[in-house]
């Protein structure tokens, strides 16, 4: 269905709304790129950005690791699915309707049919033209009555021909609805639905769910959902006003779940109960209604194009997840749509569709595999390119994915292990050959984001699961990446790796020598004399490798050192109550002091001084405290309990300092975004 | 340099007077042509001055460009020939084998003629075949020459005549070619040439004796216009030479020998050898000239390296060596690698050339370094690491001779250049004869007597250390003036320092004791040590790795000389103590640090207690801030120190009031510059408790192991975890090493626990809250309305369009209808 509307809308827009289409394309170019990538894969890389070409080159090399490196994606066996998705991607991406919404918002609301001006005008023009031509035809007919006969004959031929063409599409569409159409319904009526009827029905249904009006209402819902799919279909005739359209859709979406539950006498999400019910008589009676509701909602989802609307519908559908779970194949379809929406890039839509995915996945373990694969691949596809705009989305995607993978660790562990194994294999290959091509497989966002994903996954699940076998591999990968990509230019990458280590350290209480990764940051002495005139547009956190021309720029060094301060503070905060904190701080402190003395960037003096003061203070504090204890370093339990009270109370100045630092860095990040 | 050589050349050729005269004239003319200002040459050859001047004038008048070129070429060739002759003479002086051999004292008229022909043919571009003159009477030959002289004005022409023959031949050739051109494409031509090359090559390899003349043909091929053919020609010549070069050096025949009649076989052999050496020389000249062309650079270098590898004993080794050594510091990676490998193999297979080439090579390297002011590629020094010295020899020598190598050299030079006393000469002659016999014997057996071998090695060593010390001095003199910031980039402007230090470390046992103190002082300065304790300059221009290497070398030198040296190495400990803090994982070489720890601390005997304590504390702190490989190296050293200095074990325990041992400083100063003033003995090794939590199991196990020492008696040692030294441990744990190990398979993770639907782990609650905000009714209505409107608009538009199209086509159909109607009408009418 989506396909159909998509095609039509596209064709239409292409023919008649060139300007609008162009505009919308421009607006959504970023969005397009991403969606197209995830759907159609790598065949269609007209975008030509570097990341993609890089991917291509890795594709072409045919050794084992290279094939592993194919974007680290999990294989998806359903080809049909891919095709389907890619079609709908096209639909989404060249969607001209988004624009109408935005236009209509400030247009007059009074008019019932406030389509876009262009369209209206065109329609009017066409009306005029038709009148003119009709007149002409009439004249001709008047002149030569025999022509009428000829014309009739020709028309009948045309119709029979056309219907043949159409029938294929009709079939396809109808087959989907066979379940609903057959048996439990009279041939579709073509009565025009008026606002009044609908509100009557609504009232009736809310009072007494069991009324047969419910069927009518659901039929109306069906028509509303299929509205516009076929220009001369019944629904076009039945729905004449926006008011009616709105009434039907908002009411059904809001109430259907409750009504159906009331009919089935269930209140909670207990899946077992529904499965039991499935064989009961009650279910048999109500099943068509449920099916109709679910399928038509699916139609609606695939038709809508506005992100907010989609968010709304998905949110409304979420309580009904339990009904979906009764129909695995429908759920599969829904999941595909949802994953596409999830990857679409709109924060709210992503979130709400993710919640729905998660709901479904937890209800339907069979779907979990599909979700894990699809979502992981979507994540990889969208994380190829990181820039100012999508940092937040990628963060969200990653968190969502971690949620999804943490649902059933036993089930997802296989995938996690495979993926980590792939990362490791790529790294080994690179370290073996040290060739540029292999190094590029590490030096990209996809690799780093993937690594970050599993780091987060480990952090989240470390307490509950036995991940001790996975951890060393991940740590090794982090160390290996840092080692294979040395130099000041990779400082942003190093800072990210250091953050990962901090995260890991935080969750498993192991000691990681984080400072060794970022000592490079603390060695800046020179900045270029000529200040960059044009303010660099590049956001620091969207970089892995610093462009050469920025290397000595004030901006880059400032950002580097500020990030280094964040990372170091996190590291210090982690061990600020440990008995050996003074020693942990010794070497970094020396370097920080040196930097503070020598840096030519004034704006850094304050944060550096602050960190130095805080660390020194905490060092003195721990030193004072440990002077009075009597245990020795080999007394592990005593070492563990050292300053535990203070740690729990969290009043130490350094803890507070760290809280303020992390808050600052967050606001800084937000400001830059 | 040309002038000097010429002076030597003139008296050098041992030729009979007539011909000598003739020869001199010709060569002098050439010399004069190039260096007209050098009047003294005319004075020497004053006899023919007039005619000569005449000739010169005429020549100058009739000078044409190509003539000039040819003359230049000829002069070059002559000079080269003279050069080539010179070593042979030297050879004669040194080991006059032939004189001692009874077989070779025979008659020599004819032989002399061949020798003469060498020169004349040299002039003749080597095109003329020698066979035609083979049996020719010397008189005839001479007259020919005479004619040439009397017609001096046509000398240029005469030379012209011969090339024209060639040119004519070529022309003929080209004519023929042109005829066949239609049939032969350039490719086929190339194929033909290739085939010819292969043919000649095969013939040469099959029977070099009789086909020796084909070498010339091959050489001619190397002048081909097609660069590919030239390359192939060079390669095939290389293959041929590699195969046919004899295992002895071919010597210039003396006058005496030439004067004696020889048998036919000897003649043949002499001719063979003579042709071989002449072609070889021409080949080398070709290579050396082609080396300058970028297109042939690789081929030329490859050929020279291969030749050097195959025939280091053969004639013209000097020029080969000079070229190869020059290319040691080539910026071209491939060429440099080839040269390095060639020189290394030269060093390794000393048996082939009895060490003579080795010393020549080392001297050339030394000269090269000197010439370029130490700004060369590190590889040019690194090859010296492959040198092999007899350990005993070095020691004997150092005990026997207390003379500095440099002086040594000077003495020798004096010996050679001052053969003043007549008695001495007589004595020498006597001993010479004896030596000659010895030399012949040796030449046969290819062994060196130990004395000579020692001599050669000593010479090599002195040249080598001269180079090393030059580099050290150079680093020292420039390091002070270098800019601070450059210290960040390792090896910046001292490219040779690292391999030099490595070499010093390797050959430390061979260094003369007299140099020792100077060397140590030098190293101390290089390592960045200054006398002002409070202001140790961190930036003496050398990188941390280089400075650490200086410390290592100093200790190696000290230790390999039986530690008998009365040198205070304390300063190097101080230096290491400070350098540990300067270490940066990616900038500096961790291996060097581990090596320094191993050499200075791990291998050492009992340390001073204060110093040991300071190092223990610093290493523990160091282990907290750096990666696992560095940490394990530090911990192993630390453990070793604790084992050797049992008193320091107090640091493992937290006694009331800190360290129980009295020390100068009561409070620990983590940033102290001087280990003695750090007060580390008063500190407690708290670091180890945190290192127990280290993510790397090896490190955490080692930390626990060390901590367990606290409970043991001073003489007891904990269970040995591994016997690796710091360097081995470092390499074992380094990332690259770990990555090269097979990946440990991670089995599926064990976790049976499932999460409930409402339990969120990664998403923060405030993010989740956002998800639930739904649209307001108004907004929803608005959105739905526009959605509806658009859909309706589209469908309406579509309907209208169909209608319009329909009407239009109906109108269009009218024409069709008319046509049909007409037709039907016609049919009806008909």
Automatic annotation (TrEMBL), chain A:
Comp. bias regions, Basic residues: 1-37
Compositionally biased tracts (Basic and acidic residues): 174-188
Region of interest (Disordered), ranges: 1-63, 77-97, 159-191
Source domain of life: Eukaryota
Annotated compartments: Nucleus
Main subcellular location: nucleus
BP terms from Gene Ontology: ribosomal large subunit biogenesis
Key words, A-Z: Coiled coil, Nucleus
Keyword Nucleus part of the UniProt annotation: yes
Cellular-component GO terms for this entry: Noc1p-Noc2p complex; Noc2p-Noc3p complex; nucleolus; nucleoplasm
Keyword Cytoplasm: no
N-terminal signal peptide: none
Residue ranges the record marks as coiled coil: 116-143
PANTHER family from the UniProt entry: NUCLEOLAR COMPLEX 2 AND RAD4-RELATED, PROTEIN REBELOTE
Family statement: Belongs to the NOC2 family.
Official protein name in the record: Nucleolar complex protein 2 homolog
UniProtKB/TrEMBL annotation, chain B:
Subcellular compartments: Nucleus, Nucleolus
InterPro entries on file: ARM-type_fold, CCAAT-binding_factor, Noc3_N, Nucleolar_cplx-assoc_3
Pfam families: CBF, NOC3p
GO-annotated biological processes: DNA replication initiation
Domain named Nucleolar complex-associated protein 3 N-terminal: residues: 192-283
GO cellular component, one term: nucleolus
Domain CCAAT-binding factor: 548-703
Recorded GO MF terms: chromatin binding
Keyword Nucleus attributed: yes
Composition bias type Basic and acidic residues, residue spans: 118-145, 412-424
Alphabetically ordered keywords of this record: Coiled coil, Nucleus
Region (Disordered): 1-21, 74-99, 117-161, 396-424
Entry's family note: Belongs to the CBF/MAK21 family.
Record-linked PANTHER family: NUCLEOLAR COMPLEX PROTEIN 3, NUCLEOLAR COMPLEX PROTEIN 3 HOMOLOG
Name this polypeptide is given: Nucleolar complex protein 3 homolog
């Amino acid at each position: 269905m989506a396909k159909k509307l998509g095609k039509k809308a596209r064709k239409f827009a292409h023919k008649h709304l060139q300007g609008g289409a162009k505009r919308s394309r421009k607006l959504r170019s970023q969005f397009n790129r991403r969606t197209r990538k995830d759907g159609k894969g790598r065949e269609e890389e007209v975008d030509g950005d570097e990341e993609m070409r890089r991917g291509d080159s890795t594709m072409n090399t045919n050794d084992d690791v290279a094939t592993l490196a194919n974007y680290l994606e999990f294989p998806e066996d359903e080809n049909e699915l891919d095709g389907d998705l890619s079609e709908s991607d096209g639909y989404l991406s060249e969607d001209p309707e988004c624009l109408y919404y935005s236009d209509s918002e400030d247009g007059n609301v009074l008019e019932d049919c406030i389509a876009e001006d262009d369209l209206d005008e065109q329609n009017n023009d066409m009306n005029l033209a038709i009148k003119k031509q009709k007149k002409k035809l009439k004249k001709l007919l008047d002149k030569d009555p025999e022509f009428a006969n000829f014309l009739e004959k020709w028309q009948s031929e045309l119709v029979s021909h056309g219907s043949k063409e159409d029938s294929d599409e009709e079939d396809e569409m109808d087959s989907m609805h066979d379940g609903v159409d057959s048996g439990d319904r009279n041939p579709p009526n073509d009565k025009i639905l008026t606002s009044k009827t609908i509100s009557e029905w609504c009232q009736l249904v809310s009072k007494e769910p069991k009324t047969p009006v419910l069927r009518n209402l659901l039929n109306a819902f069906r028509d509303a959902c299929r509205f516009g799919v076929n220009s001369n279909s019944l629904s076009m005739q039945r729905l004449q006003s926006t008011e009616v359209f709105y009434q039907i859709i908002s009411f059904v979406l809001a109430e259907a779940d409750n009504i159906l539950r009331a009919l089935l006498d269930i209140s909670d999400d207990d899946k077992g109960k529904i499965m039991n019910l499935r064989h009961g008589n009650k279910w048999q009676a109500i099943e068509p209604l449920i099916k109709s509701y679910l399928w038509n909602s699916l139609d609606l989802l695939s038709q809508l194009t506005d992100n907010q609307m989609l968010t709304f519908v998905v949110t409304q559908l979420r309580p009904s997840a339990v009904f979906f779970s009764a129909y695995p194949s429908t759920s599969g379809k829904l999941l595909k749509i949802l994953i596409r929406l999830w990857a679409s890039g709109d924060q709210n839509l992503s979130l709400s569709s993710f919640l729905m995915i998660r709901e479904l996945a937890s209800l339907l373990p069979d779907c979990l595999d599909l979700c894990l694969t699809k979502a992981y691949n979507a994540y990889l596809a969208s994380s190829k390119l990181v820039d100012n705009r999508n940092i937040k989305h990628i963060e969200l995607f990653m968190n969502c994915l971690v949620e999804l993978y943490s649902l059933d660790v036993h089930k997802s562990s296989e995938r996690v292990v495979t993926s980590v194994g792939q990362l490791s294999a790529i790294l080994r290959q690179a370290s073996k050959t040290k060739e540029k091509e292999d190094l590029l497989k590490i030096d990209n966002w996809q690799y780093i984001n993937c690594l970050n994903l599993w780091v987060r996954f480990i952090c989240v699940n470390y307490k509950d699961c036995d991940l001790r076998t996975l951890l060393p591999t991940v740590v090794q990968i982090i160390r290996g990446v840092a080692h294979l990509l040395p130099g000041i230019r990779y400082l942003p990458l190093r800072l990210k790796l250091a953050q990962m280590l901090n995260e890991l350290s935080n969750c498993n209480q192991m000691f990681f020598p984080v400072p060794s990764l970022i000592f490079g940051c603390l060695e800046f002495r020179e900045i270029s004399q000529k200040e960059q005139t044009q303010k660099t547009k590049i956001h620091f956190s969207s970089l892995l490798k610093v462009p050469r021309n920025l290397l000595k720029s004030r901006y880059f060094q400032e950002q580097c050192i500020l990030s280094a301060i964040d990372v170091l503070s996190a590291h210090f905060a982690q061990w600020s109550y440990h008995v050996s904190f003074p020693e942990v701080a010794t070497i970094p402190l020396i370097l920080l002091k040196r930097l503070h003395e020598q840096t030519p960037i004034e704006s850094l003096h304050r944060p550096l001084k602050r960190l130095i003061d805080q660390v020194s203070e905490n060092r003195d504090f721990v030193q004072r405290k440990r002077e009075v204890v009597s245990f020795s370093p080999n007394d592990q339990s005593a070492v563990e309990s050292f300053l535990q009270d203070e740690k729990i109370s969290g009043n130490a100045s350094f803890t507070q300092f760290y809280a303020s630092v992390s808050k600052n860095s967050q606001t800084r990040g937000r400001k830059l975004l | 340099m040309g002038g000097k050589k010429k002076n030597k050349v003139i008296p050098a050729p041992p030729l009979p007077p007539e011909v000598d005269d003739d020869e001199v004239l010709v060569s002098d003319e050439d010399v004069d042509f190039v260096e007209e200002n050098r009047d003294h040459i005319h004075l020497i050859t004053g006899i023919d001055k007039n005619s000569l001047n005449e000739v010169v004038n005429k020549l100058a008048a009739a000078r044409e460009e190509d003539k000039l070129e040819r003359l230049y070429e000829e002069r070059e060739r002559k000079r080269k020939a003279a050069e080539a002759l010179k070593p042979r003479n030297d050879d004669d002086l040194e080991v006059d084998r032939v004189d001692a051999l009874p077989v070779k004292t025979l008659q020599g008229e004819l032989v002399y003629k061949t020798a003469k022909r060498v020169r004349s043919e040299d002039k003749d571009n080597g095109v003329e075949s020698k066979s035609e003159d083979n049996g020719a009477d010397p008189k005839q030959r001479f007259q020919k020459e005479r004619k040439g002289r009397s017609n001096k004005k046509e000398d240029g022409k005469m030379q012209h005549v011969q090339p024209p023959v060639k040119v004519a031949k070529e022309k003929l050739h080209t004519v023929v070619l042109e005829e066949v051109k239609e049939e032969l494409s350039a490719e086929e031509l190339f194929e033909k040439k290739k085939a010819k090359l292969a043919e000649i090559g095969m013939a040469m390899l099959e029977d070099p004796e009789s086909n020796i003349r084909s070498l010339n043909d091959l050489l001619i091929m190397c002048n081909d216009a097609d660069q590919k053919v030239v390359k192939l020609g060079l390669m095939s010549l290389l293959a041929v030479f590699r195969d046919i070069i004899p295992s002895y050096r071919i010597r210039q025949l003396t006058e005496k020998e030439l004067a004696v009649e020889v048998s036919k076989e000897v003649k043949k052999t002499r001719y063979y050898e003579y042709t071989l050496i002449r072609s070889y020389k021409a080949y080398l000249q070709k290579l050396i000239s082609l080396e300058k062309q970028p297109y042939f650079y690789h081929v030329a270098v490859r050929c020279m390296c291969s030749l050097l590898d195959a025939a280091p004993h053969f004639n013209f080794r000097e020029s080969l060596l000079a070229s190869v050594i020059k290319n040691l510091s080539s910026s071209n990676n491939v060429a440099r690698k080839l040269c390095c490998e060639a020189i290394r193999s030269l060093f390794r297979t000393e048996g082939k050339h009895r060490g003579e080439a080795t010393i020549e090579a080392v001297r050339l390297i030394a000269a090269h370094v000197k010439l370029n002011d130490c700004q060369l590629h590190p590889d040019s020094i690194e090859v010296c690491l492959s040198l092999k010295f007899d350990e005993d020899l070095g020691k004997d020598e150092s005990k026997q001779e207390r003379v500095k190598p440099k002086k040594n050299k000077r003495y020798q030079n004096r010996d050679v250049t001052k053969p003043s006393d007549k008695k001495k000469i007589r004595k020498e002659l006597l001993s010479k004869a004896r030596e000659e016999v010895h030399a012949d014997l040796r030449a046969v057996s290819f062994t060196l007597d130990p004395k000579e071998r020692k001599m050669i090695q000593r010479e090599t060593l002195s040249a080598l250390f001269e180079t090393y010390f030059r580099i050290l001095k150079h680093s020292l003199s420039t390091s002070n003036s270098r800019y601070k910031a450059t210290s960040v980039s390792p090896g910046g402007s001292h490219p040779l320092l690292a391999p030099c230090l490595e070499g010093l470390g390797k050959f430390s046992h061979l260094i003369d004791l007299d140099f020792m103190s100077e060397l140590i002082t030098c190293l101390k300065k290089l390592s960045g040590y200054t006398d002002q304790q409070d202001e140790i300059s961190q930036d003496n221009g050398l990188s941390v790795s280089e400075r650490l290497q200086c410390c290592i070398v100093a200790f190696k030198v000290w230790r390999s000389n039986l530690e008998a040296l009365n040198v205070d190495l304390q300063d190097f400990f101080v230096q290491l103590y400070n350098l540990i803090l300067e270490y940066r994982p990616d900038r500096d070489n961790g291996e060097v640090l581990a090596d320094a720890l191993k050499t200075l601390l791990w291998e050492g005997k009992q340390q001073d207690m204060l110093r040991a304590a300071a190092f223990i504390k610093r290493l523990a702190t160091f282990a907290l801030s750096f990666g696992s490989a560095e940490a394990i190296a530090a911990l192993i050293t630390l453990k070793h120190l604790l084992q050797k200095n049992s008193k320091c074990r107090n640091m493992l325990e937290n006694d009331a009031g800190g360290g129980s041992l009295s020390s100068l400083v009561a409070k620990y100063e983590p940033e102290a510059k001087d280990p003695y003033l750090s007060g580390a003995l008063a500190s407690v090794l708290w670091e180890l408790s945190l290192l127990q939590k280290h993510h790397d199991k090896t490190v955490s196990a080692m930390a626990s192991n060390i901590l367990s020492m606290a409970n043991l008696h001073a003489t007891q040692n904990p269970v040995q975890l591994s016997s690796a030294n710091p360097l081995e441990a470092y390499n074992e744990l380094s990332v690259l090493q770990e990555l090269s190990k097979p990946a440990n398979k991670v089995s599926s993770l064990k976790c049976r626990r499932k999460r409930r639907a409402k339990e969120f782990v990664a998403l923060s609650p405030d993010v989740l809250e956002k998800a639930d905000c739904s649209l307001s009714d108004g907004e929803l209505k608005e959105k739905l309305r526009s959605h509806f409107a658009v859909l309706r608009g589209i469908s309406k538009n579509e309907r209208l369009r169909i209608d319009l199209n329909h009407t239009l086509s109906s109108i269009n159909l009218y024409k069709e209808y008319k046509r049909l109607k007409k037709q039907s009408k016609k049919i009806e009418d008909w």
